[in-house]
Design brief:
This protein has about 800 residues and is of the alpha/beta class. The protein is about 50% helix and about 10% strand. Strands 12-11-10-13-14-17-16-15 form an 8-stranded mixed sheet, sandwiched between helices. Helix 9 (about 220-230) runs antiparallel to helix 12. The chain is elongated, with a radius of gyration of 35 Å. It starts with a helix and ends in a 32-residue tail after the last helix.
Length: about 800
């Protein structure tokens, strides 16, 4: 054990030193089309492994045969080092490997298959050359070759027959590999290279031959070394046969190995490597059964294992690999087998030829509840609209009392989960149940992306995504709950949770420039580099094309000369219904003003009490088509304490209506410049509406100006229509969200996601640099360039 620990420490220190030197002197492996890694990584990782082995060998009392193995291993590594430097040809490497293997056979490393020494020597050379190259080609994914070598050495040490000297030498090699694996496991900081893979492969081949000295039966001699080095043999057979079948050169590198095929089936790189570790270890268990329990379990275990391995081999061999992963076919006519295979459909009982292995990426969208409002509408729209590019699943919670359900916007209940314990109110027990339910669903669905909406779903959903191992986590702030919703203490707690959640979020979406400034600056929820700016989008053409306004006014009993003010939304404390009621009461002195209030919520009864006796207000629910309601009104009114980007104003603008709104949150970003402030500073006139303070007198003043000046109202409406259709269309939202998903997939640590993203070129929306102090937020609306950089 002391050799294991000492070699581990020495190898780890030498590897760390080599990584430092590689960064300084640019000793790195550049990305290549035939290589898996698409980033520059330090090379010559085999050097610390072999230096550690050589140092350990100098401290051990080795016999002639073991000393020869160490010396030949160093020479094989030197061959790999030359190949790393000068890219030797396949024939040059094969010739040198054959000579070194013959040297090993001459020094007594012999495969005792027969009674004829010449045949045994020939079998030994073939085995050593084959294993050396087989191990070399499994060095194709972070941590794979080093981990498989450690498992193989553990099997060789555990199986009876290894002498004290060879066991100590194997422990030293295992420690050297483990020290290297610390830096080579995904994501790798250094690669083994041919310097390491050829030397380690040769050492393993020689060690497996030494094991046969203590085996008596022919089948034991044949099977046990193959089980010890099962994975290199399995992979070499897979790539050799499939490349030959497809008419490609066996010696030309490509991304068609066992590990690559597992990634193509949907595994991450880490999962594929860990599964191959397990397969390699299980082969060692079968070898142990063969030696210790031959009469009871050994034969059956070996037979069953070989059958299962054959089934797996056939399954993987039949997978259609992407053309960009493969090498070019050989010049000339394809083989007879290839011609036969081209004429006959490929069918096996294990693979459905019509099933695309490269399935679409799966997105799970989580929202606390599908109540009336912009977040629910956006979630439903994206769930439906993204089906052409992604598999989509929607998870929602329980509606609060009095809230209206917007799930009617979904095409069906397919891929829809409802979690009854996920509610708006804070409850430790319910929230824990909701978190566990989310984790269970995510583990069942195995999504590639989790996209959360609203505060409660955002925190629970992102934590669940981390626990379920989802690689990409996105959250959209449709507003925030840091002020205006809860008490100062509750707001501070929410802010602390949001800051923690920001650390585990891949990308945060802000829906306005003002909101982006608040999240990254004022509240410090997330770093600006993690943010993307994607404005909300809605299906606005029905509002823009609706011509049923006069008919709707007639049904409502509103005269043509009356000025109809529309307030629509969820009746909750954040909407400042007290201000709305004060405006309605103050407007009773103007007989032209009528107020249409559309919505329900927890404060409905309170609002009814506040406006009791007001003849100029007309209350209704959501049963009127909103296109007709918006077309019937003259102006849209918003009185909220805080907003993200209010859908009611965007819909009104798309129908050509001006707005009067309190200057809060993302409302500022809906005002089209130029912005002219009033003398008292209580209001501001934009090109498409008015921003006011939370003061009933200022609101009434703005409404009276619009009621008295039809030309002003018309010009504001036209400007607002152009702005809404250009900046807040559903098509733009769909395109930018899709581009963001593909961009995140292309940068993901998951190779399967990177492949799904393919060569798709997209420019993800990004938050612009911090604006200078004192600059006006609405100045960013000069054109669509504010959406992306």
């Amino acid at each position: 054990m002391k050799f294991l620990l000492a070699s581990f420490a020495v190898s780890a220190v030498l590897t760390a030193l080599l990584i430092h030197l590689a960064c300084r002197f640019r000793w790195s492996v550049p990305p290549r089309p035939d290589r898996w890694s698409q980033r520059a990584v330090a090379k010559f990782g085999g050097v610390p492994i072999l230096l550690t082995l050589l140092g350990s060998a100098l401290c051990l009392p080795l016999d002639r045969k073991l000393a020869a193995i160490v010396g030949l291993t160093v020479l094989m590594s030197a061959l790999g080092f030359l190949d790393d430097l000068f890219q030797l040809s396949a024939m040059q490497k094969l010739s040198a490997q054959t000579l070194l293997s013959m040297g090993a056979a001459g020094m007594g490393v012999s495969y005792p298959l027969t009674q004829n020494p010449c045949i045994n020597a020939l079998c030994t050379v073939v085995w050593l050359v084959g294993i050396t190259n087989a191990f070399n080609i499994i060095d194709n994914m972070d941590g794979l070759a080093a981990g498989v070598a450690v498992i193989a050495l553990a099997k060789l040490i555990y199986l009876p027959g290894a002498g004290a000297g060879s066991s100590s030498l194997m422990l030293a090699m295992a420690g050297a590999l483990l020290g290297f694996l610390v830096f080579n496991f995904h994501p790798a900081k250094i690669f083994m290279g041919d310097t390491g893979s050829l030397g380690v492969g040769f050492f393993l081949g020689c060690s497996s031959v030494l094991l046969t000295d203590h085996l008596s039966s022919f089948f034991s001699i044949l099977v046990i070394p193959a089980l010890v080095l099962f994975l290199p043999v399995f992979d070499a057979a897979l790539v050799s046969v499939t490349r030959r079948w497809s008419g490609r050169r066996i010696a030309v590198g490509a991304k068609d190995h066992t590990s690559h095929r597992l990634v193509l089936l949907g595994m991450s790189e880490r999962q594929a490597v860990l599964l191959l570790y397990l397969i390699s270890a299980s082969a060692g268990g079968v070898a142990a059964l063969w030696k210790s329990e031959w009469h009871n379990l050994g034969a059956g275990a070996v037979a069953l294992y070989l059958v299962m391995a054959t089934v797996l081999w056939l399954y993987l061999a039949r997978i259609e690999m992407p053309g960009s992963w493969l090498s070019e076919r050989r010049a000339g006519a394809p083989s007879a087998f290839l011609r036969l295979n081209a004429r006959r459909p490929r069918k096996t009982p294990f693979v459905n030829p019509g099933l695309p292995i490269l399935r679409k990426a799966k997105v799970v969208r989580i929202i606390a509840r599908l109540n009336v409002g912009g977040p629910a509408r956006q979630a439903c729209y994206l769930h439906r609209r993204l089906l052409s590019s992604f598999e989509t699943v929607l998870i929602t919670g329980h509606l609060a009392e009095g809230e209206q359900d917007m799930s009617f916007l979904l095409p069906s209940s397919e891929n829809l989960y409802r979690i009854d314990s996920m509610r708006r109110s804070i409850s430790l027990w319910s929230d824990v149940k909701a978190l566990l339910a989310l984790v269970s669903i995510l583990r069942r669905e195995r999504p590639d992306i989790v996209h959360t909406h609203t505060a409660k779903a955002g925190i629970l959903g992102r934590v669940a995504a981390v626990l379920a191992g989802v690689p990409i986590r996105v959250h959209t702030y449709h507003g925030h709950v840091f002020e205006g919703y809860f008490s100062p203490l509750a707001s501070w707690i929410f802010l602390a949770f949001e800051r923690l959640a920001g650390r585990i979020t891949t990308r945060v979406i802000a829906i306005s420039e003002t909101q982006a400034d608040e999240l990254s600056g004022r509240f410090r929820v997330v770093e600006r580099k993690k943010m993307a700016l994607i404005k909300t989008g809605f299906e606005l053409l029905p509002f823009a094309e609706c011509n049923r306004g006069p008919a709707t006014r007639e049904k409502m009993g509103v005269r043509p000369d009356e000025f109809l003010v529309l307030w629509a939304g969820r009746m909750a404390p954040i909407k400042n219904l007290e201000l709305l009621a004060e405006v309605i009461r103050a407007a009773r002195g103007n007989p032209r003003f009528r107020f249409l209030v559309v919505g329900h919520g927890t404060d409905s009864e309170k609002f009814d009490r506040l406006t009791s006796g007001c003849w100029n207000v007309f209350r209704t629910g959501w049963y009127w088509p909103m296109t007709d309601v918006v077309a019937a009104c003259d102006v849209a009114l918003l009185t909220s304490h805080n907003e993200g980007t209010p859908a009611s104003l965007i819909e009104a603008m798309s129908a050509g209506k001006p707005f009067v709104a309190t200057e809060v949150g993302g409302v500022r970003d809906l005002a089209v410049p130029p912005l002219r402030r009033s003398g008292d500073g209580q209001s501001a006139e934009a090109a498409n509406g008015f921003l006011t303070a939370s003061d009933p007198k200022s609101v009434i003043t703005c409404l009276e100006r619009l009621a008295a000046d039809q030309e002003l109202a018309r010009s504001m409406g036209q400007c607002g229509r152009r702005f809404a259709l250009e900046m807040h269309s559903a098509e733009r939202l769909h395109e930018e969200i899709e581009n963001l998903y593909f961009d995140l997939a292309a940068k993901s640590s998951s190779a399967r996601l990177r492949n799904l993203a393919g060569g798709r070129e997209c420019i993800p929306p990004a938050v612009q640099p911090e604006r200078e102090a004192g600059s006006n937020a609405v100045a960013q609306h000069a054109g669509p360039s504010s959406l992306s950089q």
